[in-house]
Design goal:
By secondary structure, the chain is mainly alpha-helical. Helices cover 66% and strands 3% of the residues. The strands form two sheets. Strands 1-4 form a two-stranded antiparallel ribbon. α12 packs across α19.
Length: 435
């Protein structure tokens, strides 16, 4: 095992790798409870999604460990799960089974573009500012969902949204969770989001706002309600031209967000670990293929896109340097399968803080956009604000990608726009105007 992961070459030990793997798991364990709640809003069985989340994370992380050999953990991604639930299923009205098929296809396409080395072309085609805007917009969208779950933001007939009753017990519990989570993160606790959820759940039980779970450990939940649903649902839906067009947009969005999320996370973790040499990542292709494979596996199990988690940097900071770190994290995800009864205590008020904080962290990319250039600022602004205002990640990406070629042409910079962006203009225009 030491030779396989090159412990001596990476100046590491079993104790360092194990501690790093545990650290990474604690930093991202919140996804085990947040993901079932988000996907559960679509009507999916929460216990089955919990199992799918844990198994997809375990398999994806193990593939990354054994093949990619990077200390990077994977799990169903925040933002992509929100897009799946609130935009695709609840917004577009697409059945969750068909949405899972879209996730599966996006994973297969990711595998192909990585194998045929097309990823560099795509990376260069899409302007960096639009990538930052998409990440930030998704962050605002997630934070908006969190504020709604906390009942800090509520519907209003006159103004569409308004401030909720800040003195209500549910809102106070969510605010307590937000404060506690921020304290943990400010103090540098690597599992801050997870610890914040734990303390919020405990506070909810003490105050009677959250029911005590019937047990802590139980048998592994059944995957039957979601396993293979991505394919069984294909024969139960009426395929129309509108549905096919919608599904194409859905697949493109899954692909776009996962592609750049993975590439960015991989670079960030590898750079922190000291793996980047001459601005190149060794075995980058293997790492990207590991991520793509995990996405398709997760879709079959019954969860939204599985992707690399930037929380992996916490494990690297703790000394993780090889895939053995990821192997430890994968084992802990498998072990977590026995703790499904804890889903009962993870209410919307308990997870609200996690959504808000993750949204804040994602919105940090706003600072990387050149707001002084209107031809760049306008499409980026539309991408960011349209997502939460229309409750649709796809709408934000569509309008941003449509307006970018337009503003660049008006600026006289049309020749500098990659041909792929013009193709995407017509694809997204068809989505906006005809669906």
């Amino acid at each position: 095992m030491k030779n396989y992961f090159r412990f001596e070459e990476n100046n590491t030990t079993y104790s360092k790798e194990i501690m790093a793997g545990v650290t990474t798991f604690l930093a991202m364990a919140y996804i085990l409870f947040v993901n079932p709640q988000i996907l559960g809003d679509t009507g999916m069985d929460m216990n089955a999604v919990f199992a799918a989340t844990a198994i997809a994370a375990a398999i994806g992380t193990a593939i990354m460990a054994l093949w990619g050999k990077y200390p990077i953990a994977l799990a169903p991604g925040m933002g992509l799960n929100a897009f799946f639930a609130y935009t695709v299923v609840l917004g577009m009205g697409i059945d969750w089974e068909i949405a899972l098929f879209g996730v599966f296809v996006s994973g297969i396409i990711m595998i192909l573009i990585t194998l045929f080395k097309i990823r560099e072309v795509i990376i260069n085609a899409i302007p960096a500012e639009l990538k930052y805007a998409a990440a930030s917009g998704i962050g605002l969208f997630i934070a908006f969902v969190g504020l709604q779950n906390a009942e800090i933001v509520v519907p209003d007939e006159s103004t569409y949204v308004a401030l909720g009753d800040m003195a209500s017990p549910t809102t106070l519990l969510a605010i307590f969770g937000l404060v506690v989570t921020v304290i943990f993160l400010v103090l540098g606790a690597r599992g801050g989001i997870f610890y914040g959820m734990v303390l919020t759940a405990v506070a909810g039980i003490i105050t009677g706002l959250v029911e005590m779970p019937s047990a802590i450990v139980d048998s592994i939940p059944s995957l039957a309600p979601t396993f293979g649903a991505a394919f069984t649902g294909l024969t139960e839906v009426e395929w129309t031209s509108a549905l096919i067009m919608q599904l194409i947009i859905v697949i493109l969005t899954f692909l776009f967000v996962d592609f750049f999320d993975t590439a960015g996370t991989l670079y960030a973790v590898a750079n922190q670990a000291g793996f980047v040499k001459n601005n190149k990542l060794p075995n980058a292709g293997r790492a990207l293929l590991s991520d793509a494979s995990a996405t398709s596996v997760g879709a079959v199990l019954g969860t939204s896109t599985t992707t690399a988690f930037v929380e992996s940097t916490s494990g690297v900071a703790a000394g993780g340097r090889t895939g053995f770190t990821s192997l430890v994290t994968a084992a802990l995800f498998m072990l977590s399968l026995f703790f499904s009864p804890l889903l009962a205590v993870v209410t919307e008020a308990v997870t609200a803080a996690a959504l808000i904080v993750v949204g804040v962290l994602m919105a940090a990319a706003l600072k990387l956009i050149d707001w002084d250039k209107l031809e760049i600022a306008l499409p980026c602004f539309l991408t960011v604000v349209v997502m939460p205002l229309t409750y649709s990640i796809a709408n934000g990406i569509a309008l941003g990608f449509m307006f970018y070629p337009i503003t660049m042409i008006l600026k006289g910079e049309g020749k500098n726009v990659h041909p792929i962006m013009y193709v995407l203009f017509f694809v997204f225009a068809g989505y906006i105007f005809f669906l």
